[in-house]
Q: What sequence folds into this?
């Protein structure tokens, strides 16, 4: 599955989704992970009040199952979830590699129900659905 990270420095999740200079995208499985691409955002897309700044970011993460952010606004979160992507907020900047390794351990063990659904849907090639009732489990993963 693909996992996206809102980042200013391509090393850590340290950015608000709407203000991120970069979205780093990785392919992740229980066996490992691989960097796919970094999508960069500059100029007018960063201006305050520019409501369209989310459109290119949403397009960049459209094939991802999970989006890690330092913060995300209500409208951004709603739009991410509407695309079938599970947003994950980190409480403080955290290294992307550390998050990938933690998620890999979860995949090797017993993933929470919402993640099992993502994996099952992707295996079948169907659209993803999420059950947010078990969100607390993921915060501690």
A:
């Amino acid at each position: 599955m693909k996992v996206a990270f809102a980042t200013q420095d391509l090393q850590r999740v340290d950015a608000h989704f709407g203000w991120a200079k970069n979205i780093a995208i990785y392919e992740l499985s229980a066996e490992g992970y691989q960097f796919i691409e970094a999508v960069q955002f500059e100029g007018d897309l960063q201006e305050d009040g520019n409501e369209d700044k989310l459109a290119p970011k949403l397009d960049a993460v459209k094939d991802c199952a999970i989006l890690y952010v330092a913060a995300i606004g209500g409208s951004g979160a709603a739009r991410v979830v509407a695309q079938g992507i599970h947003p994950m907020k980190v409480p403080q900047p955290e290294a992307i590699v550390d998050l990938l390794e933690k998620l890999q351990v979860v995949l090797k063990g017993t993933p929470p129900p919402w993640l099992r659904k993502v994996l099952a849907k992707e295996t079948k090639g169907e659209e993803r659905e999420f059950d947010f009732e078990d969100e607390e489990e993921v915060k501690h993963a």
